[in-house]
Specification:
The protein has helices spanning 12-25, 30-44, 47-58, 67-80, 84-97, 102-114, 118-133, 144-157, 163-171, 178-181, 186-189, 195-216, 229-238, 249-265, 278-288, 297-307, and strands at 222-226, 271-275, 312-313, 340-341, 347-348. With 350 residues, the protein is mainly α. The strands form two sheets. A three-stranded mixed sheet has the order 1-2-3, with helices on both faces. The termini are far apart.
């Protein structure tokens, strides 16, 4: 399905079936593909079938990349067709597990919010924000919905602005402020006979629609390609012309971090890293009818991996391991200030 296909023109059942077939052909991408298939089933009203896909992922033999995300989606879906007790149990489990990614927190908090559990929704948004953003120099793009959701629920509860709400205000780019968008009195204006109130509400709705469209236009991150040491050695051995792109593994790792920091400084949101493998790269080259030795193919390969849902958000959450898989925390590795590459590929503070 093309990203610009109008929702009303989508056969969600057929799209879900297509994604399931594709997952069978590409088992390494099954998690991302089946999550998309489940979303289409939910949109078609086939919620029990969507739950079956979530259960299929959770019971799979191999480890999942985002198990708490799958559980959160399952809980939200279950609650929508009458399985409240099971949904609540899953939500409690996710909060106890305290995942180091924003999406599960947002999904379960919004599920609570949509069922008028505003106090619990506020607690969940707040827990996620404190866990992921305390001492963070800049909130990653993926955490913005946490702050916006927390702001929205606090407005509905009539709570005063705090420092987290102020941070949400600074991240919000729409011409209509968050206070206006999240004003509980807005619903009253929809029934108003005052033309000025109706015109103001139309302006707010247009601003919300613009913001939503901007988010949907970025379904996957701007991703930088990462090669593990063994894969990079195999790559440049098989295709020596790529040595000009990768002088050493240490330089490769340092370049990734530098490139992502430059993109972040320039205002580019939703950044990520995709990890390549030589067999996958060669298969991609064959599908494009191009030689793997062509350096111009590398960014296309990175974009394709990101579009398949294989990107890991950058920067990692507070306390999370570094993206280079060194076994160290990001803040002690490539997240260090003024990174300098060492011969073994680590990055140390100067």
């Amino acid at each position: 399905m093309r990203p610009d296909t109008p929702a009303e023109n989508v056969d969600h059942t057929a799209e879900a079936a297509r994604l399931e077939r594709t997952a069978g052909l590409y088992p390494e991408d099954a998690e991302a593909l089946l999550l998309r298939a489940a979303a289409h089933l939910e949109l078609s009203g086939a919620r029990p079938e969507a739950t079956a896909l979530y259960d299929r992922l959770l019971s799979s033999a191999g480890p999942l990349e985002h198990p708490q995300l799958v559980r959160a989606l399952k809980a939200a879906n279950l609650w929508e067709y009458g399985h409240e007790a099971e949904a609540r149990a899953i939500i409690d489990g996710i909060r106890t597990a305290a995942p180091r990614e924003a999406a599960p927190w947002v999904i379960v908090a919004e599920a609570l919010e949509s069922h008028d559990e505003l106090e619990a929704a506020h607690e969940t948004f707040h827990e996620g924000a404190v866990l992921l953003l305390t001492d963070a120099p800049e909130p990653p793009y993926a955490t913005h919905p946490l702050l916006f959701g927390r702001h929205r629920v606090r407005r509905m509860l009539g709570l005063p602005h705090d420092t987290w709400d102020a941070l949400a205000d600074t991240l919000h780019t729409s011409p209509v402020s968050l206070d206006e968008l999240h004003d509980p009195k807005r619903v009253w204006s929809l029934g108003s006979e005052n033309p000025a109130e109706l015109e103001a509400e139309i302006s707010r709705l247009r601003a919300e629609l613009t913001t939503a469209r901007e988010a949907l236009s970025r379904p996957y991150p701007v991703a930088v390609l990462h090669w593990p040491a063994a894969e990079l050695t195999e790559l440049v051995t098989a295709y020596p012309t790529l040595e000009s792109e990768y002088t050493s593994h240490a330089d490769h790792l340092a370049t990734i971090e530098t490139s992502l920091r430059e993109l972040s400084t320039s205002g580019t949101p939703n950044l990520g890293i995709v990890t390549g493998t030589v067999p996958s790269y060669e298969a991609f080259a064959a599908s494009e009818g191009t030689s793997p030795a062509d350096p111009a193919l590398l960014p296309e390969y990175a974009t394709t991996l990101a579009a398949r849902g294989l990107a890991v958000a950058w920067p990692p959450s507070r306390g999370a391991g570094c993206w280079c898989v060194s076994g160290r925390e990001y803040g002690e590795c490539h997240g260090a200030t003024e990174p300098t590459a060492t011969p073994d590929g680590r990055v140390m503070k100067r």
